């Protein structure tokens, strides 16, 4: 492999690392948005997230009567979060493959 090929390969790895970082940040932001939507449902504040603490006895868990309603209300945010998690995994896999190819003899 020529020096130019090595440089090109390393630049591609750098691009993939930046893409992975961006995908991680997007997934984290989507997770926060999903949690905020769930919190808005729990607190009944549909205008914005207040950051108010919800006591454990008020939390909506799988056995709570409003659980299905909460899932339905946050369905869009959850789907977006799941999509961003898949994108993050794909970016991680592309970076890992490129790194593996770079270190193989």
Largest sheet: none
Strand content: under 5%
> Please, what is the average pLDDT?
89
Indicate the multimeric state: single chain
What is the helical fraction, as a range of percent?
over 70%
Descriptive overview:
This protein is mainly alpha-helical. It has three helices and no strands.
Short description:
The protein has three helices and no strands.
Task: State the main characteristics.
105 residues; 73% helix; rod-shaped
How are the secondary structure elements laid out?
Blueprint: H1 3-43, H2 67-73, H3 75-103
Helix pairs in contact: 1-3
């Amino acid at each position: 492999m020529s020096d130019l090929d090595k440089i090109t390969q390393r630049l591609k790895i750098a691009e993939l690392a930046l893409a992975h970082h961006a995908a991680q940040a997007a997934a984290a932001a989507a997770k926060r948005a999903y949690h905020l939507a769930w919190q808005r449902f729990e607190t009944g504040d549909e205008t914005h997230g207040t950051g108010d603490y919800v006591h454990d006895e008020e939390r909506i868990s799988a056995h709570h009567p409003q659980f299905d309603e909460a899932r339905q209300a946050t369905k869009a945010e959850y789907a977006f979060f799941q999509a961003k998690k898949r994108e993050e995994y794909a970016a991680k896999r592309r970076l890992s493959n490129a790194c593996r190819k770079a270190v193989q003899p």
